[in-house]
Design a protein that fits this description.
Layout: E1 4-7, E2 14-15, H1 25-30, E3 32-36, E4 39-43, H2 46-58, H3 64-80, H4 84-105
Parallel strand pairs: 1-4
Antiparallel strand pairs: 1-2, 3-4
């Protein structure tokens, strides 16, 4: 994805999403042109950055230290853009609903009446 980046904090470095992960494809159509380190680049909108950070944090395959950084980035985004708190709750509810559906379908002998 040349020319597409997600800014991390106040432009400390460029961070490009994994081009294999199809979930980021919709970010490209919503990206806007910004000057980044002197170059005009398509940059993900802040709502998409939040979505990507939530995906990263919820990935249990990632190292715990990476997930802690993702959580810190989520908190910084909410501090900087307070209007995102409503989106955060919606995204977390959707994420938890998927997990709850998976848990409900998965047999669990430790819970009486399920599985």
């Amino acid at each position: 994805m040349p020319g597409f980046c997600i800014p991390c904090a106040p432009i400390a470095r460029l961070n490009a999403p994994d081009p294999i992960d199809h979930r980021y494809q919709n970010f490209i159509s919503r990206a806007v042109i910004h000057s980044v380190l002197g170059y005009d680049m398509k940059v993900a909108i802040v709502e998409d950055v939040l979505q990507g950070k939530i995906w990263a944090y919820s990935d249990e395959q990632r190292r715990k230290s990476k997930r802690q950084k993702d959580l810190a980035n989520i908190i910084r985004l909410i501090e900087t853009y307070p209007h995102l708190v409503n989106l955060l709750w919606c995204l977390l509810i959707m994420l938890n609903n998927k997990r709850l559906q998976w848990l409900w379908l998965k047999p669990n002998p430790g819970i009486s009446g399920l599985g």
